[in-house]
Amino acid sequence: MGQLQRQRVARLATLLYVMLCSCLTIDLCSAQQEPRLQIYPTQEVQRKPVGKSLILTCRPNVPDQALVTDLQWKDNMNNTILPKPTGRNHPPMYTETLPGESLGLMITALTSEMGGKYYCTASYANTEILQTSVTIKTYVAITWTNAPENQFPILGSDYVVKCEVKADPNPTIDWLRNGDPIRTDAKYVVQTHGLLIRNVAETDDGIYTCRAAVIETGELLERTIRVEVYIAPVITHLPAQLEAVEGKPFAANCTAIGKPVPEISWIKQSVQLNVATADRFTVNAQTGLMTISSVTQEDYDTYTCIARNGAGVVDQKTKLNVLVRPSIYELYNVTGVSGKEIAITCRSKGRPAPAISFRRWGTEQQYTPGIQMDDERITLEQYFDDERGESTGTLRIARSQRADDGLYQCIASNKGDTAYKTGHIAVEFPPDFSHMKELPPVFSWEQRIANLSCLAMGIPNATIEWRWNGRNIKDMYDTNLKIEGTGPRSDLIVHPVTRQYYSAYKCIATNIHGTAEHDMQLKEARVPDFVAAAVPRQLTATTITFDIRGPPTELGLPILAYSVQYKEVNNPDWSTALNRSWSPDSPYIVEGLRPQTMYSFRFAARNQVGLGNWGVNQQQSTPRRSAPEEPKPLHRPEQNDKEEPVVVSPYSDHFELRWGVPADNGEPIDRYQIKYCPGVKMAGTWHELEDRCNTVEVVETTSYQMTDLSGNTYYRIELKAHNAIGYSSPASIIMKTTRGNDVIQVAERQVLSSAAIVGIAVGGVLLLLFIVDLLCCITVHMGVMAAMCRKAKRSPSEIDDEAKLGSGQLVKEPPPSPLPLPPPVKLGGSPVTSPLDEKEPLRTPTGSLKQNSTIEFDGRFVHSRSGEIIGKNSAV
Ligand SMILES: *[C@@H]1O[C@H](CO)[C@@H](O)[C@H](O)[C@H]1NC(C)=O
Ligand SMILES: *[C@@H]1O[C@H](CO)[C@@H](O)[C@H](O)[C@H]1NC(C)=O
Ligand SMILES: *[C@@H]1O[C@H](CO)[C@@H](O)[C@H](O)[C@H]1NC(C)=O
Ligand SMILES: *[C@@H]1O[C@H](CO)[C@@H](O)[C@H](O)[C@H]1NC(C)=O
Ligand SMILES: *[C@@H]1O[C@H](CO)[C@@H](O)[C@H](O)[C@H]1NC(C)=O
Ligand SMILES: CC(=O)N[C@H]1CO[C@H](CO)[C@@H](O)[C@@H]1O
């Protein structure tokens, strides 16, 4: 019982006491009749509301108060009501002795069960029982048992505005909206527990009044209820697919409308977790924006967006794809056996599940899914698990070969990136000797230790055993046969103390996949046979070049060198002979010979074992001393228009001429002469601009830099070597400069046209002069022609002499032909301008050479006596 209630009871008691005292004074006057008990308030039936507190006072109305005993209250069940026990607890009902010998019945909170008849009893003077009663009738006041003051019907539904009322006796209920009474109609139905609104619309918002009245008690109570129509949430925007990148921040909207504004939450489906509580995630419940500070692979999931308000809950799902860069987490090296299938598997993670391919290490081309076009043994299988973001690629090689052994690169790629990893396919195979098939036999001589080395290919490594004449060498305990190594290489060291060791040995290799045999020969080696032939090919006064044909050789025992010994014929002693060795295939040139001398030569070949016997004894004389050989320009012609190769200078204004030193033919070369003239070639004939020729001489060099040349111009270059005897024949090349910025207009057409104009002009003048002269000759016997007529009567030799003087050169050629000029010189041809020495022997007819040689030389060709050409001078 509350403190308040107790205070109220106390106040009430005091009030009653005061009233009682005032009554007492009145009653005392009329109290001298019957003793009786009086209950206050005095009404026989007392109506009291449930829940209120109450006091009834029972006062003996007797002549002598002292005779009253045993004053009690009895409840509606005739049980005596006890006084208030000591302590703080108030029972629902108790008695309390009040001043004036009265007994109060205290009811702290009236309940409907407490209704009924209560007796107050006492005995008077021990003889008389006094008794009186009072009836308590309870009633229930109007109370709102379920009538919330704010109610929220949902748009479109039927809704009962609740107004549940309790009262006893029963109340009547009616409704008002915004002050106007509501009648039951199509829209509203007044029900026991509330007002039914059919098909709630937003206009149904408003203030409703629920009014309860109890006719019996006259009680009237009103309740105002605020009705606000709610709208169920609708998700207006949520993409069905979202894409995030691993490691990056991410945001997604889920927008919803409704009244009141819906509250949004996001649920990660696989773990049924509201992400607002998760790390890295934030959710704005009002806007629906979900953000992830840094996306991880685990965020890949289906998410449910839930929009919730007072009117309901809706949800919608979306899938969040996390783009994960691929990573390869498994690629084991594999080992297979040749001929069988081998498969290498690569496993990768990533989102979307990466595509997996392979390629051979070091190549660009990747294998395509399925069977390869160019190698149908190879198949690439791919398997994707997009849900788990995993994929597997398997490269299958059917009927594997040794060549398949190697490194293979797995390539996993998706939208985000590409990952690589390299693994090894090892192909095992039985021992194999095919690489040793072409090897020569092993040679030994003079009991030299021989090493028969046997290497077996094979994976795993093969072990090797040796057999000789069908017996296992290991079991023979022959001290001349020693085995070093058991595989994959094994060397059989043979000490061939007797002939029988020169024989075949068998090397046998074995591994888990098989066995192979290889025969190896140990042969006895000898020095080479006689040289088959040695023929002089080119002669100069001081050198002879030979062609040598070697003796037959055995595989594995090549000729290492050729040697020649030579001496002058009249020296009978070979021990003082000179010697020279050449490695095979070099130019076999003997130098430093004396001119016009007869020599004896003999030849021998050398191999590993030693020098063979001397053979091919041969005599050969050198020609007499002469002008040097033609020097050889060291330029490669680039253009070759029919007969004349043209060397192209990389520059427009200069050119470096280089040449090789020719044989000096017995006298040292002291200088070179270079002549170069610009010119043009017209109708296949070379025309030189004589006045622009340059002639220079150089010493102690084999190159010359020509400068101040014109661009895009042809030059003919003549090069001659000189010694004490004279000039060599000229080497001639045509050189063309490139078109430069400084091109001097020597272009063919202009040269031609200007030359033609000059020619025509000169020709015209000459013709005029000739006609005038002819007229003069005929009429007055004067003029040049007349003089010539007179001169013609002299001897022809005088004309020859004049011609000779006019040429200004010593020419041992036949008298010049009446033609104006000899045709231009061809490259390598004999030069017209070459000053021919008196001593020049090479131009004289063969028979006139007073020499003992069996072979003659005309400067370009060596002729045998019968005139057959043996060799050609390479200087051509
Ligand atoms: C979410 O919605 C807001 C407001 O419409 C917009 O500004 C924002 O760009 C949206 N974010 C994403 C990730 O779509
Ligand atoms: C695979 O083989 C390669 C090359 O032979 C080697 O470098 C690598 O360590 C091997 N990997 C494994 C997992 O054995
Ligand atoms: C035998 O030959 C092999 C290969 O040519 C070589 O490696 C090895 O050292 C040789 N053995 C001897 C004893 O000379
Ligand atoms: C196989 O032989 C080679 C060459 O002798 C050697 O380097 C390699 O270690 C051997 N391999 C094994 C597995 O014995
Ligand atoms: C020539 O060879 C012999 C032996 O064959 C040698 O004694 C001599 O010194 C050699 N002469 C020259 C010039 O090399
Ligand atoms: C219900 C009940 O038993 N009432 C009795 C209580 O006692 C009085 C007399 O003491 C009787 O008159 C009632 O009938």
Description:
The chain has 876 residues and is mainly beta. The chain folds into nine domains: 36-139, Immunoglobulin-like (Sandwich); 147-227, Immunoglobulins (Immunoglobulin-like); 231-322, Immunoglobulins (Immunoglobulin-like); 332-429, Immunoglobulin-like, CATH 2.60.40.10; 433-524, Immunoglobulins (Immunoglobulin-like), CATH 2.60.40.10; 533-621, Immunoglobulin-like, CATH 2.60.40; 632-738, Immunoglobulins (Immunoglobulin-like, Sandwich); 740-793; and more. The protein is 9% helix and 46% strand. It contains four helices and 65 strands. The strands form 15 sheets. Strands 19, 22, 23, 26, 27, 29, 31, 32 and 33 form a nine-stranded mixed beta sheet that branches. Strands 53, 54, 56, 57, 58, 60, 61 and 62 form an eight-stranded mixed beta sheet that branches. Strand 43 and strand 44 (514-524) form a beta hairpin. The chain is elongated, with a radius of gyration of 70 Å. The N and C termini lie far apart (145 Å). The relative contact order is 0.05. One 2-acetamido-2-deoxy-beta-D-glucopyranose binds next to strand 20. Residues 35-137, 156-226, 233-321, 326-426, 431-523 form the Ig-like domain. It is a single-pass membrane protein. Keywords: Cell adhesion, Disulfide bond, Glycoprotein, Immunoglobulin domain, Membrane, Repeat, Signal, Transmembrane, Transmembrane helix.
